[in-house]
Amino acid sequence: MVMHVIERHNLILAAQTGDAAAINRLLVVCQADVRRYARKHCQDSDVDDAIQESLLVISRKVKGLKVAAAFSSWLFTVVKRECRKLSRIMFRYEPLPDELAEQRLLQRPQDDLRIDLAAALESLPAHYLEVILLRDFEELTIAEITAQLGENIGAIKSRLHRARELVREYMLDSE
After folding, report:
1. 96-175: which CATH topology?
2. Can you give the pTM of this predicted structure?
3. pLDDT tens digits for 140-153?
4. How would CATH label the architecture of 1-94?
5. What distance in Å separates the CA atoms of residue 51 and residue 93, rounded to the nearest whole number?
6. Residue 19 gets which letter from DSSP?
7. Any idea where the domains of the chain sit in the sequence?
8. In the 8-state DSSP scheme, what is residue 2?
9. Cβ-based neighbours of 76, under 8 Å, separated by 6 or more
10. What is the DSSP string of 93-147?
11. What CA–CA distance (Å, rounded) separates 74 from 162?
């Protein structure tokens, strides 16, 4: 059954308030999307684990999602992150040291880097994108960002750090 966009939006809003029935219904509704996305990004043997872990994360953290419109991109970010986590466990993957990561990125053509950076930014949930654009593109200070968004410094620093990590992961995965 295809759910109408407005109905899905209302379901997300209800889930954000902590409505247990809405959260359960949302998990049922988005399970097909999660499965489809996990099949593209996980090893076949990890798909079911990635789905389960992703749905668990979604059920626990949907209340913290600031904008309901960001749900879809956040959902796919969660699934992709779980797939990567399972892959690292399988292959005992260790993240690249910053110097090596920077060296690998600098070896790529500038046009490829620009395209990948734009794609990485587009993949971010709205609340991460907002902070990274304010800090790294508009060059606002952390204090100016906290004043503009009306949030505390710790939350902004944490969000900025996580946004940069997600962009870094995306850039290194797109090689």
Report:
1. Arc Repressor Mutant, subunit A (1.10.10)
2. 0.51
3. 999 999 999 998 99
4. Orthogonal Bundle (1.10)
5. 21
6. -
7. 1-94, 96-175
8. P
9. 33, 37, 123
10. --PPPHHHHHHHHHTS-HHHHHHHHHHHHHHS-HHHHHHHIIIIIS---HHHHHH
11. 13
Distance of alpha carbon 52 from alpha carbon 50, whole angstroms: 5
Q: For residue 109, how far is the Cα from the chain centroid?
A: 26
Instruction: Find where tokens 């800090």 sit.
Output: 135
DSSP 21-74: HHHHHHHHHHHHHHHHHHHHHS-GGGHHHHHHHHHHHHHHHGGG-S-GGGHHHH
CA distances 117 to 29, 47, 142, Å, are 31, 27, 22
The position carrying tokens 């690998």 is 104
* Total number of residues shown for the chain: 175
How many whole angstroms separate alpha carbon 162 and alpha carbon 160?
5
How far is the C-alpha of 83 from the C-alpha of 79, rounded, in Å? 6
Measured at the CA of 18, the angle between CA 21 and CA 26, to 5 degrees, comes to 45
Are the CB atoms for 38 and 47 separated by under 8 Å? Answer: yes
Q: Using 50, 70 and 90 to split pLDDT, how confident is the model at 1? A: very low
Q: Which of 74, 76, 68, 77 is nearest to 9 (CA)?
A: 68
pLDDT at 118 over 50: yes
